[in-house]
Amino acid sequence: MSTHARQNQTFTLPDGRQLGFAEYGDRNGTPLLYFHGYPSCRLEAYVIDDMARKHHTRLLALDRPGFGLSTPQPNRRIADWPTDVSAFAKGMQIERFAVMGLSGG
Question: Which stretch of DSSP H or E encloses residue 85?
Answer without folding.
Answer: helix 81-91
